[in-house]
Amino acid sequence: MPSLNREGVVPLHRTLLLVQTQPYPLTGGVSLRNWQNINLLAKWGPVSIFSFYKGNANLGMLPLAADWQHYDLSTSSRPLLEKVQRRLWRLRPTGYARVDWLYTRDAAHQLCARIATFRPTLIVIEEIWLYRYLPVLKQAGCPLILDNHNVEGDDSRYQGISHISPQMLTKIRRIEENFIRAMAQVWMCSQEDVELLHRLYPTLKTTAHVIPNGLNPDYYKIVRETVHSQALSIPIPRKTNTVIYLGRFSYQPNAEAASILLNHIYPSLKNVVGNCRLLLVGCDPTEEMLAATQGDPQIIVTGQVEDVRPYLGTTAAVMAVPLQKGSGTRLKLLEAFAAKCPVVSTAKGAEGLDVEDGKHLLLRESSAAMVSAIQQLWQQPQLAQVLTDRAYKQFLEHYAWSAVDRKMQMALAQLLG
């Protein structure tokens, strides 16, 4: 809980959170991190959520005493000048398609009104893409925090993505640096990301804090205690060896990892083991993924699911994470740890997590080595049990909400007193 002031009273702060994804139900890594922050910040006082995304919001489903106001970008009518600016974003030094798409004058007016009525003492913004709302946020007259899920200016994030040109990367870096300079704090997912941020922007003076991705262990209790694959929309026989991968597949590193699983890891496992299935769980599946399901009924592509826990609870499941790119910390690994599902990953896939090969998971770099490791876990359930027990203990110590809460308390105490 927050520290007491001199009078022995818990100081209350009013936090406004700006998010670009539906805060609930939980549909992926972004929503998991936002949900963590919403719950932990609610310990400090009233919380108000202002969301921007396409589609409606079921405002009454939020299982938390927090106000939620949503702006539906799919129905927004934009004035002519705004439409012209969107088309000519390349001509502006800090113009960028995603930033301009998220901004509308009407949304800015509604946000301004929300600030006036809620009177926040702290504003937390999800990622740099809400950059154009900065003038409105500054008018609130309270500290601003950027929750930067990834170092967006890291060029390794865009390797193999042809539509991200050097000029566009320069714009991303300019937006990221300018936004962070205007903040009282920036929150990063790992120490590796903090160090990368300082290498990219060596003159930044904004204090960067590590607020790791975390999970509520109680949410995964049902997976740890029962195997409930019967809850799946597609029944999976109890004796089927299962490889699982969680992710939003419009994110290029996840799409590439799925491609590796489809073209290298799963075919090899099928040749040597025979009885196995591949579960690719998450929204925005690629054409390659959808096409693969037509040729092999043992490949299951779910699309967006309301709850990933039944998939993590599938009998003989192994989380395979052949990630080659990306930054931040991997919530998919933390979900596996919390559910006691064994993990085989590349070093990049486990980057930012305090874990050791052979102690909490198996780290392998090549597809062939990952195949051997997955097969080993299927053949040696006692090894899988040892790894998952240790990984769960490590998760509780460093990545449960209670552990993240301690780090958030220190960051906010430094800022708010």
SSE topology sketch:
Elements: E1 15-19, H1 29-41, E2 47-53, E3 67-72, H2 80-87, H3 97-102, H4 105-118, E4 122-126, H5 134-138, E5 144-147, H6 166-181, E6 185-188, H7 191-200, E7 207-210, H8 221-225, E8 241-246, H9 252-272, E9 276-281, H10 287-295, E10 299-301, H11 309-312, E11 317-321, H12 331-339, E12 343-345, E13 362-363, H13 367-379, H14 381-398, H15 401-416
Parallel strand pairs: 1-2, 1-4, 2-3, 4-5, 5-6, 6-7, 8-9, 8-11, 9-10, 11-12, 12-13
Residue share in β-strands: 5-15%
Distance between the first and last residues' Cα: 14 Å
Level-1 CATH class name of the largest domain: Alpha Beta
Helix content, binned percent: 40-55%
Average of per-residue pLDDT values: 89
3D structure, described in words:
The chain has helices at 29-41, 80-87, 97-102, 105-118, 134-138, 166-181, 191-200, 221-225, 252-272, 287-295, 309-312, 331-339, 367-379, 381-398, 401-416; strands spanning 15-19, 47-53, 67-72, 122-126, 144-147, 185-188, 207-210, 241-246, 276-281, 299-301, 317-321, 343-345, 362-363. The chain is of the alpha/beta class and 417 residues long. The strands form 2 sheets. A 7-stranded parallel beta sheet has the order 3-2-1-4-5-6-7, with helices on both faces. A 6-stranded parallel beta sheet has the order 10-9-8-11-12-13, with helices on both faces. The model is unreliable at 1-10 (pLDDT under 50).
